[in-house]
Amino acid sequence: MLRRKKMKYSRNWENCVEVRDSQIHGKGIFAASFIPKGELILVIEGEVIDGNECERREEEEDNVYIFWNGDECYIDTNKFGKIRYINHDCDPNCEVLDRDEGSLNLVSARDIYPEEEITIDYGYDEIYEDCTCRTCLLDSQNNSKAS
Questions:
Q1: Exposed e or buried b per residue across 52-68, where buried means at least 16 C-beta atoms within 10 angstroms of its C-beta
Q2: Which tens digits make up the pLDDT trace of 101-132?
Q3: N or C terminus: fewer CB in 10 A for the chain?
Q4: Are strands 27-31 and 17-21 parallel, antiparallel or unpaired?
């Protein structure tokens, strides 16, 4: 989910993350070193598109990596950087914050440890009835054991 908040960061941690195979889905972004809470990890950049083009791409194309940037502004990151490999979790360790019309910031929402996968909340609860992310599956397993 997009949060509109302007912040200053001590550094850009992009060189401290790497793309590799993920247990969540396909490939993912992983911390290569400790990243403190509240730090800029990546600048999310891509092609700025409107709502109609966003809908067309979501309906007609596979592997769509589009971020909403407010009102009718969307950023398609399909051909830009590591961000297209970020996976979903309902209890994410990162959040997406406003930067400007053509870009967003991926910021650590808590301390992230080496080898930990970087995740965001895709907002699945607004789209799907049941989420199958790691957190929801673990919660479901724990609830069934307690019954």
A1: eebeebeeeeeeebbbb
A2: 678 999 999 999 999 999 999 876 665 566 76
A3: C
A4: antiparallel
State the DSSP H helix or E strand holding residue 137, giving kind and residue range, or none if neither.
helix 134-146
Count of the separate structural domains present in the chain: 1
Domain containing residue 58: CATH number: 2.170.270.10
Judge whether 138 lies within some domain. Answer: no
Q: Supply the range of the domain harboring residue 56.
A: 2-122
Neighbours of 45 (CB within 10 A): 16
pTM over 0.70: yes
- Looking at residue 1, its pLDDT comes to 43
Burial state string for 15-31 with b = 16 or more CB within 10 A and e = fewer than 16:
ebbeeeebeeeeebbbb
Residue 18 lies in a domain: yes
